[in-house]
């Protein structure tokens, strides 16, 4: 949601639609969260974890990172220096993703079964969506009355509010530090980590821009094929290695590796059926992600005001989404998972297609509000069902790493295509683009009969047993 607000901000500053589409590639970062997610399973954050434990320690560090990144976004809100805007957008995506990894690992540890996951997923998504919708809607409404700098600063303060609440929670059993000492050390070490991460991203970004300029690549160059090839490479290598992985004994060194074991275990447990699973998860949310990418620029192009967009993002989207999450969670608890997934795909497609109707209607407030309600209801329902499905694929021995891998891959194709959404819109228009996104959601249903017959072969020895 907040990336969509950034795209709206860029559109209001007359940045061209192709460049706006490229900014959607910032959302690719969560796709590769599996690269650092094993660190969250294995290591604790110095300082914070000495009192609050591993999971809460990572959450607190991530909250500091989110706050600092949003302050950076606030002071670059004129959008006159797009590389600097991209730097803080990437940092915001990184720390938001790290927070999600820690929270997902904690959630799966607390509720390892499908029945137990349904209510905890509902609670998690209600909180997550409430925060994201409130931040997005709040930023737009504040910007309508003040400016984008003030809007981002206000949301940064709101995002930081849970930190002192978490700091007051009980001590983790088995820790050996006092609250005050852990807090001071955690803030000091966290500040150093945030500074280092900012410097690393800045250097890597400068190197990438220099290399692109040296190769003669500019804003007019079609980067989509190259980005797709680079992003798919690690997953393609795992697929090529699948025959060898399938033949491994359960206690093979590769499966017991702390860094690679959690990911190889997925392919080992499901064999060649892993390719069917990955094909399905990569397609299931494509329509929603693509529609969200250009929804705010589309509303702006259609003539809706910031006030109307802010109300749609908040007062309309939040309750509609929460109802969808509640119904989706109930369906998962009561229905066969394949039927719940099919219903989610159908409702998500309708949510995208309703925007075709919006595009051809005069820009009246009720039209926007009705369209957003339908879209967000479908998004919430499909999202709740999908989270439970991914959670059921995870080996509970390493929940954070495997859920990060699966959820990251689930949005890889969608986020790759999102970067080219501006080019697609130029070619087929907003209405054609939205018809296409809805059709993509429907296409995922083809996989469901095959998924229903897939079974895991059991669990490998895993890093924990090796230790």
From TrEMBL:
InterPro entries: AmpG_permease/AT-1, MFS_trans_sf. SUPFAM superfamilies: MFS general substrate transporter. Its main location: membrane. It is a multi-pass membrane protein. The chain crosses the membrane at residues 17-36, 57-78, 84-106, 126-144, 150-169, 181-206, 226-245, 266-286, 306-327, 339-360, 366-391, 403-421, 433-452. It comes from the Bacteria. Keywords: Membrane, Transmembrane, Transmembrane helix, Transport. GO terms for cellular component: membrane. It is found in: Membrane. Gene3D superfamilies: MFS general substrate transporter like domains (1.20.1250.20). PANTHER family: MAJOR FACILITATOR SUPERFAMILY DOMAIN-CONTAINING PROTEIN 3, SOLUTE CARRIER FAMILY 33 ACETYL-COA TRANSPORTER -RELATED. This is Permease. It comes from Qipengyuania pelagi. The lineage of its organism: Bacteria, Pseudomonadati, Pseudomonadota, Alphaproteobacteria, Sphingomonadales.
């Amino acid at each position: 949601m907040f990336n969509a607000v950034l795209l709206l901000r860029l559109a209001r500053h007359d940045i061209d639609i192709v460049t706006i589409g490229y900014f959607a590639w910032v959302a690719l970062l969560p796709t590769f969260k599996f690269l650092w997610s094993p660190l969250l399973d294995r290591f604790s954050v110095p300082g914070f974890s000495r009192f609050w434990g591993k999971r809460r320690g990572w959450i607190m560090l991530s909250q500091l990172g989110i706050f600092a990144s949003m302050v950076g976004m606030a002071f670059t809100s004129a959008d006159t220096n797009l590389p600097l805007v991209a730097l803080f957008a990437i940092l915001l995506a990184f720390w938001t993703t790290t927070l999600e990894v820690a929270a997902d690992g904690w959630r799966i540890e607390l509720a390892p079964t499908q029945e137990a996951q349904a209510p905890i997923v509902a609670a998690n998504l209600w909180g997550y969506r409430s925060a994201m919708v409130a931040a997005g809607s709040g930023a737009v409404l504040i910007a309508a009355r003040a400016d984008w700098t003030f809007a981002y600063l206000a949301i940064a303060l709101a995002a930081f509010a849970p930190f002192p609440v978490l700091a007051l929670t009980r001590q983790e059993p088995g820790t050996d530090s006092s609250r005050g000492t852990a807090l001071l050390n955690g803030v000091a070490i966290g500040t150093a980590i945030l500074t280092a991460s900012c410097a690393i991203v800045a250097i890597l970004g400068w190197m990438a821009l220099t290399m692109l300029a040296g190769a003669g690549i500019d804003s007019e160059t079609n980067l989509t094929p190259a980005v797709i090839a680079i992003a798919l490479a690690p997953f393609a290598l795992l697929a090529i290695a699948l025959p060898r992985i399938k033949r491994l004994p359960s206690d093979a060194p590769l499966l017991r590796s702390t860094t690679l074991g959690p990911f190889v275990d997925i392919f080992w447990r499901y064999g060649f059926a892993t390719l069917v699973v990955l094909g399905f998860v990569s397609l299931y949310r494509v329509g929603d992600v693509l529609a969200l990418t250009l929804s705010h620029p589309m509303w702006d192009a259609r003539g809706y005001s910031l006030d109307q967009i802010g109300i749609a993002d908040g007062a309309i989207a939040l309750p509609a989404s929460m109802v969808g999450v509640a119904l989706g969670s109930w369906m998962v608890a009561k229905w066969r998972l394949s039927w719940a997934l099919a219903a989610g795909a159908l409702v998500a497609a309708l949510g995208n297609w309703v925007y075709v109707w919006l595009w051809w209607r005069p820009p009246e407030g009720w039209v926007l509000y009705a369209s957003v309600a339908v879209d967000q209801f479908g998004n919430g329902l499909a999202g709740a069902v999908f989270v439970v499905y991914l959670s059921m694929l995870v080996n509970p021995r390493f929940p954070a790493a495997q859920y990060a891998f699966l959820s990251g891959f689930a949005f890889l194709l969608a986020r790759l295509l999102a970067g080219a959404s501006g080019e697609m819109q130029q070619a087929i228009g907003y209405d054609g683009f939205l018809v296409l996104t809805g059709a993509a959601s429907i296409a995922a249903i083809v996989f469901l009969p095959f998924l229903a017959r897939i079974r895991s072969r059991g669990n490998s020895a895993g890093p924990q047993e090796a230790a």
